[in-house]
Amino acid sequence: MLRSVLQWLNRVQSFLYCNENGFWGTFLESQRMCVCHTGATLCQRPIPCLIGGNNSCAMCSLANISQCGSCNKGYKLYRGRCEPQNVDSERSEQFISFETDLDFQDLELKYLLQKMDSRLHIHTTFISNEVRLETFFDPRWRKRMSLTLKSNKNRMDYLHMMVGLSMKICQMRNSSVDPMFFVYVNPFSGSHSEGWSMPFGEHGYPRWEKVRLMNSQCFNWTLLLGNRWKTFFETVHIYLRSRAKVSTVLRNDSGPVDLSDPNKRQIYIKISDIQVFGYSVRFNADLLRSAVQQVNQSYTQGSQFYSSSSIMLLLLDIRDRINRLAPPVAPGKPHLDLFSCMLKHRLKLNNSEMIRVNHALDMYNTEILKQSDHLTTKLC
């Protein structure tokens, strides 16, 4: 049976973009993604940027084919994307210093993380009632750990960016235990329900890399988020479970472990070190709160809230740049609303104020700028 041109095009695209790590898949043009035959997303290679008019790319980047290299008239290049030139991103830096000297390329970041470079160290407080560092324990039942900053109290003029996470885990010889991690991130403080779960291996999100240390039973577990998936964080919650299937007779939920029993010894592990890598960015809460209050007050009074277009454009730019740092979602699903979390926890706005500010920005975006609706999923 003869194949149509579209069928041949799909086969070629599948060969080019869905043939990675020894896995194969089928390319979906409508969603610009691969459906891997294994069910995971291991087969997907970087997919070229979308070339077209308006805010689409004029040309893809030679260094990273999935990002824009140049933009159409009326748009400017910003971090691999094209955005309207009427947005003054430089002015946004007065409120949040998105651009820093630590915006390394991913290869540089990977090298610095391997070297545990001190420039990327963020001092966090380790909190756990179930795990002690440098102490063997039984990981087969859920253990909870947290790394937190308490910036709302101690460093109010900074926000914090996470680019990687590292743990040094030691196992007993001939151990059958392979730890499994679930990680939740609170971007700007708040309750545990206001955190999001890292989607390891989904929608292009990275996986843990496990490297054995020389002449040791210890392994470095490293998660490299890089510039693509870096994100704001205030607290990182880590839940540890084991994949090992061992008889419940060996169960030890608490108390000292028995390292003399060879049957039990093989299941124990210890965490020697745990570290968040990233950097801090300047945050002028008072200046941003003043701009937000102007919008909120105008909206409450029913006046032409878009009369101060410079403030509206500024806040739209800041909202967009913050929400870009949300985790990936399935095609067609809205991203998480990190901007509202920042309004709530760092500017101390109540729910009504948050709703008014976002509604005013949405109306300005659609009615004045004629841009598409800003759809997000509530987190805070």
From TrEMBL:
Any one Pfam family here would be: BRINP_C
A cellular component annotation (GO) from this entry: dendrite
> What sequence ranges are listed for the domain BRINP C-terminal?
3-380
Q: Which PANTHER family match?
A: BMP_RETINOIC ACID-INDUCIBLE NEURAL-SPECIFIC PROTEIN 1 (PTHR15564:SF7), MACPF DOMAIN-CONTAINING PROTEIN (PTHR15564)
InterPro entries listed in its UniProt record: BRINP, BRINP_C, Growth_fac_rcpt_cys_sf
Q: Which GO terms describe its biological process?
A: cellular response to retinoic acid; negative regulation of mitotic cell cycle; positive regulation of neuron differentiation
Name of the protein in its database record: BRINP C-terminal domain-containing protein
Organism, per UniProt? Danionella cerebrum
